[in-house]
Amino acid sequence: MKEHYFTSVPESESRPFEFETECLGQRLVFVCDRGVFSKGEIDEGTRILLESLPPLSGRILDLGCGWGPVGITLGKLFPDAIVLMSDINQRAAALAGANIIKNGVSNVSVSVSDGFEGLEGSFDYIITNPPIRAGKQKIYSLFDDALKRLNPKGSLFIVIRRQQGAESALKHLGENARVIEKRKGFWVIEVKGE
Known about the structure:
Elements: E1 17-23, E2 26-32, H1 44-52, E3 59-63, H2 69-77, E4 82-87, H3 90-102, E5 108-112, E6 123-128, H4 136-148, E7 150-161, H5 166-173, E8 177-183, E9 186-192
Parallel strand pairs: 3-4, 3-6, 4-5, 6-7
Antiparallel strand pairs: 1-2, 7-9, 8-9
């Protein structure tokens, strides 16, 4: 079976490299590697997701953080927020940890977790570019678990390509879900907590 970026322990040979980028006015430096999602650039869906977010505060979870572009950007933009990043991929989480240090964001931390398995507490905001190739059953389970871990008045933000199931995800998420951005085939969905 082909290895995916949501594999817990990637088998591909590690070949780390560094690159610089800009996101929402922030100059960022990242270490990246093989065996992780979108190696070497912030993918378009993630950029659209970040550009669609309102100002955030409180406790934020970057669910499926990869090497950390979302959580680290948010940590820089909102220094008073507490940002937790998590990923099932141990290599991605290690890269995210190195990137926290490299970008000097003291309000951001990372942990290895299969969904919410290793995470404690609730969150004001949960942000995810979900692992679509893991299948609907897996990502819908992540969405359902995320909604259970939102603080009252909190929000879950998701980005999905229209042709990769955005409409069916919107239906699954129910009446509290709305599309806040449609751009270049990507839908950004916000689901408000109760």
